[in-house]
Recover the amino acids of this structure.
């Protein structure tokens, strides 16, 4: 009951008041148990208006950012979605709740195993979790109707653009290591249109199409 109250408060004070209007997205944010995707010692903070550390120098994104990215992506039942940066699996669960077939890729093997076990335990069976360099996408299952990148990229990856189907949407934070712009790219007839969504700050996307580990502050 406590978590239901916190989740409803999150919807009203953090999401609706900031302009999230898609009722399907709001329902997903209400029904997917965010407290299951944070470390045990942070469960009481699961619905707070901030990102939370999940270990391995990664975070679960602030609820508003998750909702804004999901709303921008316009996910429909039956969509094929790629998530770059699985983390704890929360964003993948939101996409799955909305009816997408989700492929999600995580570079950290420990987080990969944890997310896979968590998503299976919670019943999100339309999610497949892969381990690898997400900055290169997942070409074996392309093209995708939706791609969400949940880590900061130095630029929009042409590799990811090449894995979009026609009429597909790519949501990605682009900028330097400290400040990014959340962008929505829409593919139509081989052409790309770009729209600015929000300023943001994500952990860096590490890999061939992202930041090298050393420049991102990793040993």
């Amino acid at each position: 009951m406590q978590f239901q109250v916190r989740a409803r408060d999150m919807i009203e004070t953090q999401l609706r008041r900031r302009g999230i209007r898609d009722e399907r997205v709001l329902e997903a944010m209400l029904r997917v148990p965010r407290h299951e995707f944070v470390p045990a010692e942070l469960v009481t903070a699961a619905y707070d208006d901030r990102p939370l550390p999940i270990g391995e120098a990664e975070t679960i994104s602030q609820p508003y950012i998750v909702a804004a990215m999901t709303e921008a992506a316009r996910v429909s039942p039956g969509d094929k979605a790629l998530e770059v940066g699985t983390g704890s699996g929360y964003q993948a669960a939101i996409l799955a709740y909305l009816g997408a077939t989700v492929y999600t890729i995580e570079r950290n093997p420990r987080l990969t195993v944890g997310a896979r076990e968590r998503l299976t335990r919670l019943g999100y069976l339309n999610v497949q979790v892969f381990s690898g360099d997400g900055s290169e996408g997942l070409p074996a299952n392309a093209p995708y109707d939706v791609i969400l990148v949940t880590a900061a990229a130095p630029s929009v990856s042409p590799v990811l653009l090449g894995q979009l189907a026609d009429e597909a949407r790519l949501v990605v934070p682009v900028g330097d290591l400290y400040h990014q712009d959340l962008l929505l790219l829409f593919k139509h007839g081989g052409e790309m249109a770009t729209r600015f969504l929000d300023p943001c700050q994500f952990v860096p996307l590490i890999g061939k199409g992202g930041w090298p580990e050393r420049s991102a502050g990793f040993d």
